[in-house]
Amino acid sequence: MILPALFIAPVLNKGRGVYTAEDLVKGTIIEVSPVIVMTGEERVHLDKTTMHDYIFEWGSRRDRCCVALGYVSVYNHSYSSNCEYEMDYEYNTITIKTVRSIGAGEELTINYNGTWNNKKKVWFDVKD
Questions:
Q1: What are phi and psi of 110, to 5 degrees?
Q2: pTM reported for the whole predicted model
Q3: Within the chain, how many helices (H) and strands (E) appear?
Q4: What digits encode the pLDDT tens for the residues 6-58?
Q5: Which domains does the chain have, with CATH numbers?
Q6: Once rounded to an integer, what is the mean pLDDT over residues 105-111?
Q7: Using CB atoms within 10 A of its CB, is residue 61 exposed (0-12), middle (13-18) or buried (19+)?
Q8: Are 110 and 83 in contact, with CB atoms under 8 Å apart?
Q9: CA separation for the pair 95, 86 (Å, rounded)
């Protein structure tokens, strides 16, 4: 499920990003994406490719990884993101939800650390 108001557009110095064409209120579920789960061994190989920047650690022990379908892999990182993601290991989905009200035309971001306001440094230089 992807909210019909979402769209992908270019982002200066970041490639592409996910935006909303409508105002969104805090707590809105904007996407529920199925994922493809891979083993830790498969992740070793993926980490040597461009896919490294698009996979998520997966499982309660983080011993696997997954590729999310839908728009999930296109959301850009922000240390003060306006959305958060939740992983459902039983149903193999990632849900994206707003953590504050968001205006039409605004880019939707997630914090790659897993918690929407986590300031831990990520593996790449961030222009936030």
A1: -125, 160
A2: 0.87
A3: 1, 9
A4: 999 999 888 999 999 999 999 999 999 999 999 999 999 998 999 988 899 99
A5: 6-110 (2.170.270.10)
A6: 95
A7: exposed
A8: yes
A9: 5
